[in-house]
C-alpha cells in the first residue's frame, strides 16, 4: 500500500481510505487463497507457488487502477473548483465554506463515509452553474430584478448539466441540482418536498443558507451568527429538513468557531478541501492567492 501511495503521489491516509473501502473486503476473500498457498507449499514446495504469481499480480494491478480512478475523480473536482475560483472569488470562498459546514453536519448526523464524501464534493460544486451566468448578473452590486432572478434560478440545472458531461460524478449531481429545494415544496428547480429531496441537498441547503446569511454582500449587511442560527431554527420544517436543522443547532458553536477560523486564515487551498475529510477545524492550508 505504501508503494501504491508513493507511485500515485497520494497521501498514505487517502490510499488507506480507498484500500479500506474497496480492498479490505477483497483481502478477506483472499484469506482462503492464502490458506491454499500454505497447503500447496507443504505438498509441492516453492515451484507450485509459482501458480499464484499471475493471479496476485492481477489483483495488485486492479488495486492500483482503483486508486488511480479515485485520483482522477478528485482531480476533476479540483479542476472545476479552480474554474469557479477563476470566475468569481466570492463564489469560490462561499463554496469552500459551505463544504466545511456541510462536513460538520454530515459528521453530526453520523452519515456513512461515502455519503459524507459526496456531500462535501456536492457542496464544493453546488454553485457550479454560476459559471454560465452573465457578468452583469453575477457581479451586480445591487439587488437583482425579477428577470435577473430567473437567470440566477437556472444555476442548479446548469451546474448539474455541466457534470452530466463527465460521467464520473453521478453521486454529486443530486446535491447540486436540488440544493434550492425547500422542505415545504416551495423551492426550485423541481418543487420537491420533504424526503423527496435527496439528503445531500437537504444538508447543503442548511450550510448554504448559513453562509449566505452571515456574509456581507454589496446590497446587504451580513446577519450575526446568532441571528442566522435563529433563522435556521425558525425555518426548520418550513424551508429546512427538521433533522438537519436540529443537527445544525447542536453544532452551532462549532460552526461559529469554524467560520471564525476560515475568516482568520483566508480561503483554504482547493486541494485540501477536496481531499480533507478530517476534522473541519483542522488541516486546511491558506489559498496561495488568498487576500483575506
Ligand atoms: Fe445556489
TrEMBL record:
Alphabetical UniProt keywords: Membrane, Transmembrane, Transmembrane helix
Keyword hit for Transmembrane: yes
Pfam families: HD_5 (PF13487)
Organism, scientific name: Candidatus Hydrogenisulfobacillus filiaventi
InterPro entries: Cyclic_di-GMP/3'3'-cGAMP_PDE, HD/PDEase_dom, HD_GYP_dom
Region entry Disordered, spans: 269-292
Domain HD-GYP: 69-264
Domain of life: Bacteria
Protein name: HD-GYP domain-containing protein
Membrane-spanning ranges: 18-38, 50-69
SMART domains: HDc
PROSITE patterns listed in its UniProt record: HD_GYP
Amino acid at each position: 500500500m505504501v508503494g501504491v501511495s508513493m507511485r500515485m503521489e497520494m497521501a498514505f491516509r487517502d490510499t488507506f481510505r480507498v484500500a479500506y473501502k474497496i480492498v479490505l473486503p477483497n483481502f478477506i476473500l483472499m484469506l482462503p487463497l492464502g490458506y491454499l498457498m500454505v497447503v500447496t507449499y507443504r505438498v509441492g514446495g516453492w515451484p507450485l507457488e509459482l501458480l499464484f504469481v499471475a493471479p496476485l499480480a492481477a489483483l495488485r494491478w486492479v488495486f492500483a487502477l482503483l486508486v488511480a480512478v479515485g485520483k482522477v475523480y478528485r482531480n476533476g473536482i479540483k479542476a472545476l473548483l479552480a474554474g469557479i475560483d477563476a470566475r468569481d472569488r466570492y463564489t469560490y470562498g462561499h463554496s469552500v465554506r459551505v463544504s466545511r459546514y456541510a462536513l460538520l453536519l454530515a459528521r453530526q448526523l453520523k452519515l456513512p463515509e461515502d455519503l459524507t464524501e459526496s456531500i462535501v464534493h456536492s457542496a464544493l460544486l453546488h454553485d457550479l452553474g454560476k459559471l454560465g451566468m452573465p457578468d452583469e448578473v453575477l457581479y451586480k452590486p445591487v439587488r437583482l430584478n425579477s428577470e435577473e432572478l430567473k437567470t440566477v434560478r437556472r444555476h442548479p440545472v446548469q451546474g448539474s448539466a455541466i457534470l452530466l458531461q463527465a460521467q464520473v460524478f453521478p453521486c454529486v449531481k443530486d446535491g447540486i441540482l436540488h440544493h434550492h429545494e425547500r422542505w415545504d415544496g416551495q423551492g426550485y428547480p423541481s418543487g420537491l418536498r420533504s424526503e423527496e429531496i435527496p439528503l445531500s441537498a437537504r444538508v447543503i441547503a442548511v450550510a448554504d443558507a448559513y453562509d449566505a446569511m452571515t456574509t456581507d454582500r454589496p446590497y446587504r449587511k451580513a446577519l450575526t451568527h446568532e441571528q442566522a442560527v435563529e433563522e435556521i431554527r425558525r425555518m426548520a420544517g418550513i424551508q429546512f429538513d427538521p433533522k438537519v436543522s436540529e443537527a445544525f443547532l447542536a453544532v452551532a458553536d462549532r460552526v461559529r468557531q469554524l467560520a471564525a477560523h476560515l475568516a482568520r486564515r483566508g480561503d483554504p487551498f482547493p486541494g485540501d478541501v477536496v481531499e480533507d475529510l478530517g476534522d473541519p477545524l483542522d488541516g486546511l492550508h491558506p489559498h496561495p492567492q488568498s487576500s483575506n
